[in-house]
Amino acid sequence: MKLTQFSFSAVLHDLYNAVYMEAQRHSHTMKLCVEPGLPQVRADRERIMQVMMNIVSNSIKYTPDGGQIQISAGQNGSRVWMQVDDNGIGIPQEDRGRIFERFYRVDKARSRAAGGTGLGLSIVSDTVRRQGGTVEAANRPGGGAVFTVRWSAEEGEA
């Protein structure tokens, strides 16, 4: 890993700009909500961006056209967090404990049609864990999924 200190807020804005057109192709409404004054983080910027991109890309892919996706971020104590909330298909309760396993797919037919290898969320989990963070997945009331990732933050504002 290549550890550097960087603006967490800037990475979130870069992420939003990178995925916005794909969301538009699916007629999704995408919103970015970032708390002001987020601190710098010390991590591998490229890998953090890969984690974020994977989670948001999954939301775009597994939310029916015309859906809503919100990317939020903030700070809680010495940790920063990013949350991706969508009104897509959600994650069946019986699969939730396995979605971070390599090659695991919730709905194999749908996953094949949407593309992918079944490695994305296992890479997310491994990358976040190796950088001292956590990743959680849950269903949101009314349908959809919520992914939350947390990392340690450095002192100082972005």
How would you sum up this structure, described in words?
The chain is of the alpha+beta class. It is built from four helices and seven strands, in the order E-H-E-E-H-E-E-H-H-E-E. The strands form two sheets. Strands 2-4-5-7-6 form a five-stranded mixed β-sheet. The chain has a two-stranded antiparallel ribbon with strand order 1-3. A hairpin with a 2-residue loop joins strand 4 (68-76) and strand 5 (79-86). Helix 1 (8-25) packs parallel to helix 2 and helix 2 runs antiparallel to helix 4 (120-130). The radius of gyration is 15 Å and the shape is globular. Residues 108-113 have low confidence and may be disordered.
Count of individual beta strands: 7
Q: Structural class, judged by helices and strands? A: alpha+beta
Mean pLDDT: 84
Low-confidence stretches: 108-113
Biggest sheet strand order reads: 2-4-5-7-6
**Helical run tally:** 4
Give the CA-based shape: globular
- H/E element order: EHEEHEEHHEE
Straight-line distance between termini: 22 Å
Helical content band: 25-40%
**Radius of gyration in whole Å, from Cα?**
15 Å
* Main β-sheet description: 5 strands, mixed
Strand proportion, as a percent range, falls in: 25-35%
Topology (SSEs and partners):
Layout: E1 4-7, H1 8-25, E2 29-34, E3 40-43, H2 45-61, E4 68-76, E5 79-86, H3 108-114, H4 120-130, E6 134-139, E7 145-152
Parallel strand pairs: 2-4
Antiparallel strand pairs: 1-3, 4-5, 5-7, 6-7
Helix pairs in contact: 1-2, 2-4
Q: Briefly, what is this?
A:
The chain is of the alpha+beta class and 158 residues long. 34% of the residues lie in helices and 28% in strands.
